Amino acid sequence: MTVRFGLLGAGRIGKVHAKAVTSNPKARLVAVADAFAQAADDLAGQYGAEVRSIEAIETAADIDAVVICTPTDTHADLIERFVRAGKAVFCEKPIDLDVERVKSCLKIVDAEGGTLMVGFNRRFDPHFQAVRQAIDEGQIGDVEMVTIVSRDPGAPPVDYIKRSGGIFRDMTIHDFDMARFLLGEEIETVSAQASVLVDKAIGDAGDYDSVSVMLATASGKHATISNSRRATYGYDQRIEVHGSKGAVAAENQRPVSIEIANGSGYTRPPLHDFFMTRYTEAYAREISSFIDFVESKSPASPSGVDGLVALALADAALKSVKEGRAVKVSEITGPLADRSVFQGR
Amino acid sequence: MTVRFGLLGAGRIGKVHAKAVTSNPKARLVAVADAFAQAADDLAGQYGAEVRSIEAIETAADIDAVVICTPTDTHADLIERFVRAGKAVFCEKPIDLDVERVKSCLKIVDAEGGTLMVGFNRRFDPHFQAVRQAIDEGQIGDVEMVTIVSRDPGAPPVDYIKRSGGIFRDMTIHDFDMARFLLGEEIETVSAQASVLVDKAIGDAGDYDSVSVMLATASGKHATISNSRRATYGYDQRIEVHGSKGAVAAENQRPVSIEIANGSGYTRPPLHDFFMTRYTEAYAREISSFIDFVESKSPASPSGVDGLVALALADAALKSVKEGRAVKVSEITGPLADRSVFQGR
Amino acid sequence: MTVRFGLLGAGRIGKVHAKAVTSNPKARLVAVADAFAQAADDLAGQYGAEVRSIEAIETAADIDAVVICTPTDTHADLIERFVRAGKAVFCEKPIDLDVERVKSCLKIVDAEGGTLMVGFNRRFDPHFQAVRQAIDEGQIGDVEMVTIVSRDPGAPPVDYIKRSGGIFRDMTIHDFDMARFLLGEEIETVSAQASVLVDKAIGDAGDYDSVSVMLATASGKHATISNSRRATYGYDQRIEVHGSKGAVAAENQRPVSIEIANGSGYTRPPLHDFFMTRYTEAYAREISSFIDFVESKSPASPSGVDGLVALALADAALKSVKEGRAVKVSEITGPLADRSVFQGR
Amino acid sequence: MTVRFGLLGAGRIGKVHAKAVTSNPKARLVAVADAFAQAADDLAGQYGAEVRSIEAIETAADIDAVVICTPTDTHADLIERFVRAGKAVFCEKPIDLDVERVKSCLKIVDAEGGTLMVGFNRRFDPHFQAVRQAIDEGQIGDVEMVTIVSRDPGAPPVDYIKRSGGIFRDMTIHDFDMARFLLGEEIETVSAQASVLVDKAIGDAGDYDSVSVMLATASGKHATISNSRRATYGYDQRIEVHGSKGAVAAENQRPVSIEIANGSGYTRPPLHDFFMTRYTEAYAREISSFIDFVESKSPASPSGVDGLVALALADAALKSVKEGRAVKVSEITGPLADRSVFQGR
Fold first, then answer.
1. Distance (Å) from the C-alpha of residue A342 to the closest C-alpha of chain C?
2. Is residue B304 over pLDDT 50?
3. Which domains does chain D have, with CATH numbers?
4. Is pLDDT above 80 for B335?
5. Closest residue, chain D, to C321 (C-alpha)
6. Do D258 and B140 touch (CB under 8 A)?
7. What pLDDT sits at residue C264?
């Protein structure tokens, strides 16, 4: 079987997914849509796909699945439309910046029996997957403490920051999802502190650039997250998990691994300086998993609920900063029946 | 000049200091006191020192300085007695488990113009000193985020736990001091979470074995601490500091650095399994610094106030756990005129 | 411009090059030839190319370049035919197992003014390229000593060994080329020792499985090579270069870089277990360079002479083992006017 | 029992051994002799020992053992005198620069039933010992190939070079001994190449500063050694052993293990810059082993024969360079009945 794709949005992340789809022997990129005709033309041309309108893709008989890479404020509407049109949907995170809107969207997905996968690409990084596999194999015993250090090479433009929903919803959200992926138990409370150390303009825009977060589960497992919008040495992405029988850590990745020694010491090159080179393999595996879910008609993971919970953790973190206290996730979400992170196990 | 020492307490940590003193060409171990005559005899015999009572050491003309390694509840009294007797005092941490008792003790030290150094040995570890030196040289720019992972190979006996003042005052206190040593600015707020994951008996004794802490300074610098009472792979002691121009990290230490490769992968031996082998060099440098302070009659560092502030951070952390909120250090200490950590710079 | 390729040979290495060609935006795979019709069909089908005979490719107007992946004993003939047919030729190493045959072939290439590139893929590995770049930038001063450790995960079948020309011509030849690539000066003498430690059957077939080689240039620079046909821990491929101002080393590569710690120590996964996964990126860059040479009509590197010299070094090594003495390369080649390795600098 | 020591020679290496002896609880330094009275006075004074003449130490009833740290050309005579005087003898390498003189000396040691240990300190390095232990435990199966990279931070003065016997007898000799220690089988043939790349003055003095060596045993095991008199990045001391089931390597040692990251990459400090700081622990363990041999009256290891064989390997290497061929060790030594390296196993 070949899964026939429509791509909605031909921007930076759209290109990443176009490459992943066209490199996959089980997929075909049929159509590209973008509000900017030139962007759609260029991307479609590069891969031999057609340019179509969103409406045309919605009703097309030769499209099985769509990848939503449009601006965030269109995500929830498009998910609803395409689920109703019977297409499998892969949507870039976040579903929406508002928890209530996400919940209403997921109700429709649920009612339609739709397939929805949310783009937490890091779960598909081979190194992070190997960490989870080591846990699943029992190599470190019971998980006790997850430590995530996640730092961007540099801050995005302040214009982007303003539309981003803030650092917790834009950047830390990946780490919240990773913490859930590794803890193996839902998070109950969130404590956070945040400050502006990198760029005063970020503070002027009402956001933070340096944050620390502590998470706790019902049984007392911990996770800590340390974020900065700027790391001079590259894209710093480390996770480690401490357990009852041992620990497992994923090391940072660098494009070239040589070492030069001289009187000043031993020097290795900096890390990757961009998420796309760092996570190239993760994006390929992510689409490959989506195709598997579509083919097998099994529930996709990470699911819409995974997207909802990660967003709720971001909201809880922000509330914790504002109120100087530990915030329960249930204060944000209310009770949730289904928290699907564990289905992947 | 040779500094002539009396050693109070011939137990485990007393032996460590006896070795450091006798290995130092500028020091001489003159006398040893211990409530257990046999312990004092053995240690004095090994190094050619005399056994004396505490009173005899207090009044001895041939003793310039004492090292206090007796049980914690005797520290404050002994500091006061020996400062009054005109001896320079090195005291193992903590000065006392009660902040008010520490403050009253320090008042007397101050009134007497005494020399008091508190035993935060980690500041003298060559690797951690190199981290601080890199900061002082401006190699990472402004300090922004300190990350400390500190895990013991195994939990102490529950009997010890009961007398220890709890994990924050007994174990995390070293990390609080290290955070202050590296942040270069006083800590204002403490958030902590704590649980019992290692040994239920520790919980039954009213303590925790797994804790996470977030610290913030007035200007918004962060520190995070992750502690566990058990690490199967050895004595896990890592610090890293993220700054505006770069980062610096101290790696874990292992007694043997070989690597064995086979079909299962590449394996290096575990870390040190004991604080005494891990910090051998730190203890030697610590006593050497104390001797320098005694010789130069300059204020010792870490000082009594450093001991006080670290204890207050521990109390604040415990309060944060109990109350589920960020606690200001000033809630514990009241305003402090002198916070001496920075004098060493 | 798009370079239109014919692929001769659809076996294991042919597939590697087919993938590299079809992934390159500046190339198109037009035709595949193979004595086994099924193999040609399968590979052509996978990439939308035609199946053609060698003769048809030779005379085709829509083919600019060929990649020769046929058995070694056909290489020299095919190079001559396709150079005469005006095609640019990329040929897998070796050109032939006989130095005289290689020389006669290169004369024809030269007379025809043909483009010939020889497949020493390791020169295109990003890590080894970074080593060479560090040298070229003067970061280690003058090159003095090159150290190469090169070990295969496992020995090939004895049938292959018998046709291979022996370990020096089959395996060490890559390291000879790498030594030349890094020394920056021609090798004058070769000393080698060889034994059978891995598999007696290899010895019975008249070959060795474990060899050490020392190389010296006219100015006294050294290179050493250590080869084994079996490494339980994966494909061990390390080079380091010691110079007057420092040293540079390329580390081994592993598919997953996590580390698991427990009471037995710290374990990282094994290395790549196959040359194709280890050198994926090198193969892509190699074809990309070939395309650049074809487009720019500049002499290709590594050249036919590079192929010749590496083979001569292999012959010299074998002679050194047999005669227990240092062998001059000129004993094998006679004087060579052109030794093209340096053109790439 | 306490072993009472006389120290012959109060120079650089004499001080190293004085410290090792006086730090050992089972030893006492009784007397120091040196042709320079001041040197003897200073060293004896530092450790509370007496200054005596060599003759007085020879006949002293209160001396059990001597450590010979005098110039090389006095070693053989002193060994003979002190063995005849019934003292256990530890002698710095080499016994003599002349193989025949060593043989005649060892005959006397043998005839007297004397205890003689030769100072190959590296066998006692904890990391190299761990390598040997891994081999002895069978962790890498049968040893096949030993690789030694050994580079000094900087060349000694040319005056020293002239008296040293040349790089093979002065520097490589340690690596020859280490190769024997790890191969577990006697070396039969030596091939070497040597050049002057570091300092022309070394060549003018008739010596080399850059050498490569290949060694082979009767069963075909290999060892390679790479030496340079200068490494800008410190004292480069690496060994690795490849075996049928795996490999084991000892990593380089650095005094401080931090890592600084910035836009230029990740930098660790240089290695130790001096053999005494690099091998501090080895010297202490070496003397401790000697004391054990003296106490247990068991044959010492490394023995006089170990010293003889290492010297013969050096002579064979020089002969190989001069004659451009593989040299058999038996060409140098004649047949040897006893090659004692294996007794330690």
1. 22
2. yes
3. 3-114 (3.40.50.720), 125-344 (3.30.360.10)
4. no
5. D326
6. no
7. 96
